Amino acid sequence: MTLIGYARVSTAEQEPALQLDALRAAGCARVFEDRISGVQADRPGLRAAIEYLRDGDTLVIWKFDRLGRSVRHLIDTVGELEHRNIGLRSLTEAVDTNTPGGRLLFHIFGALAQFERDLIVERTSAGLRAAEARGRKGGRRPVITPDKLERARMHIAAGLTVREAAARMKVGKTALYEALSQAKERT
């Protein structure tokens, strides 16, 4: 079993020394690092670390927030590692998925994240139903109001193209085409 480390700091100005020292002290044979915001999906150091890991290895991180962009991303990453028989050890949280207790803790985190997602979906759905019952529709307000649509038709009847009419009214041509098409379907 080989321990492979991964460290990440959010900006080029930050120093990963604390993480690197902790990973080396934990016995990591090799350490990969990124100097990039955690919200970035493509992190070359993380990708290289995951590609480097082999069956039976363990990815060691200083803290969970250094690995995952979100709880969902963290769970997906650990799922990918588990599928390849690779463990994950977080030094700060003292969680090691190579142990039964560590796997249990991590799966509890996953269950809580799924529960939170389900609640958000449920609340959003209930809010949309309540708004609909009050006569409100979700989504953005239309850019092309009935008044603007009528003015656009007058411009087009006077010889302007849809593009020219949209520019004169300071609206997007795509929005105007869509509004004209919808109005035509209704008649």
TrEMBL record:
Q: Which UniProt keywords apply?
A: DNA integration, DNA recombination, DNA-binding
Specify the signal sequence span: none
Q: Give yes or no: UniProt keyword DNA-binding.
A: yes
Classify the source by domain of life: Bacteria
CDD domains listed in its UniProt record: SR_ResInv
Instruction: State the SMART domains in the record.
Output: Resolvase (SM00857)
Q: Which residues form the active site?
A: S10
Residues covered by the Resolvase/invertase-type recombinase catalytic domain: 2-135
Q: Does the keyword Metal-binding apply?
A: no
InterPro entries registered for this protein in UniProt: Homeodomain-like_sf, Recombinase_CS, Resolv_N, Resolvase-like_N_sf, SSR_resolvase
Hey, which family's this protein in?
Belongs to the site-specific recombinase resolvase family.
User: Can you say what this protein is called?
Assistant: Recombinase family protein
